[in-house]
Amino acid sequence: MEITELHAYKGNTWLLRMDGSEPPYFLHVSVVQKFHLQEGMRLPESAWEQVQTAELSRKAFQHACYLLDRRDYSYQEMYRKLEPKYPAAVCYAVTDRLAARGLINDRRYAEQLARHYVAGKHFGLRRARQEMYRHGLLEAQIQEALEPYTEQMAEQLQALICRKYAGYFADPQDRRTVERGKAALVRQGYDFSEINAAVAWFLAQEEEESEPGAC
């Protein structure tokens, strides 16, 4: 294979034709320089594949950095984001490069998501775990990140009922409304045992006239 045309095109992009091929290829100047490409140069198929892989890797890395400017990603999540556009080998290489540079850090990301879902959105541990799985984190990473919140879940659920769900439990005889409130808390990620205990606490506070405004 022979490079029959090679010249600057726009900005840092160069136009290249192999054996007069149509359409032309477009390479970043850094790739042209890395492989010392020039007109008249003959390349074996394996060398040309390396050039194309380098260009794809550059584009994939640039795209990944653009994504990371908007929010963090886990290793698996970034791989899944790149996979539709780039070969698997390129996706792995780019994701490894990001991790090596600290641009992707699953432990840091797990801590960030745990804080967001538990402290921010007031999800129960079950819902928080589901959301974190969805972001491509591993069980050990999720468990470690959620561990600091386990002791505060009962207090958090009590506060959530007082602040947002008190209306569901104001009349314990209205079983239909009570069950609707419990179902809403299940969707927030709390277990029935946690919910029942928190509702019992809420009703006890309501009955204690000596402690008005417990919520």
Show the helix and strand layout:
Elements: E1 3-10, E2 13-18, E3 25-28, H1 29-34, H2 45-70, H3 75-82, H4 88-100, H5 106-120, H6 125-134, H7 139-146, H8 153-169, H9 175-187, H10 192-207
Antiparallel strand pairs: 1-2, 2-3
Can you describe this structure?
This protein has 215 residues and is mainly α. 61% of the residues lie in helices and 8% in strands. The chain is built from 10 helices and 3 strands. The protein has helices at 29-34, 45-70, 75-82, 88-100, 106-120, 125-134, 139-146, 153-169, 175-187, 192-207, and strands spanning 3-10, 13-18, 25-28. Strands 1-2-3 form a 3-stranded antiparallel β-sheet. A hairpin with a 6-residue loop joins β2 (13-18) and β3 (25-28). The protein is rod-shaped. The chain starts with a strand and ends in an 8-residue tail after the last helix. The mean pLDDT is 92.
Number of helices: 10
Mean pLDDT: 92
DSSP strand tally: 3
SS-based class? mainly alpha
Helical proportion, percent range: 55-70%
The portion of residues forming beta strands comes to: 5-15%
**N- and C-termini, Cα separation:** 77 Å
Molecular shape: rod-shaped
Q: Tell me about the largest β-sheet.
A: 3 strands, antiparallel
Strand order of the largest sheet: 1-2-3
Low-confidence stretches: none
Elements, N to C (H/E): EEEHHHHHHHHHH
Q: What would you report as the Rg, rounded to the nearest angstrom?
A: 28 Å
